[in-house]
Amino acid sequence: MITIKSFTLGPFQENTYVLSDETNQCIIIDPGCYDENDRAELSNYIDANDKKPVRLINTHCHLDHIFGNGFIAHKYNLLPEFNQHDRIVFDSYLTVSTIYNLNAEPSPEPKQYLNEGDKITFGNSTLEIVFTPGHSPGSISFYNREQKFIIAGDVLFYGSIGRTDLPGGHHQTLLDSIKTKLFPLGDDYKVYSGHGPSTTIGFERNNNPFLV
To answer: CB count, 10 Å around CB of 75?
Structure first.
């Protein structure tokens, strides 16, 4: 069974996730650790609970979701994995950080690109990948059929959706991603978002003002 541990980190209050199972292998999704306190909070949990990180995954490459890529790469000898359509976002990471007057640590180059239909495996567990662009050109989401949850990045939030006014964003594309890729998974799927509290597909289908 997959255990999901969340951390709210960095100047943008981004949700970082560590997913592990009974083997103690784990994957780190969207490490937003920006400073030493953030890094300590994340690594202390991993080390104190004898977790064994085996993959570093990015739902997309906006700065707040990859602040910690360099730290995780160095500490656990992992390279990031994300969708190739977010390469342009990845390449602008340090420039955008400068615009925000943030001293960001560089991210290493990706180990590989992830596509819809690929599977993320760790321990005895599997996540499936669905391509959900709109917030960024290469946003991807990860879901587990047995436990019925989605790690959605900045695609879908409690009562809201990802912003689409950043370079590479597109409002209608985002709505289409939510309605054609996430909604069909089922109302009982729990959604873990890149910011804010978790929600469910059913709640958003019936109450989200951007989607009803």
So the answer is: 15
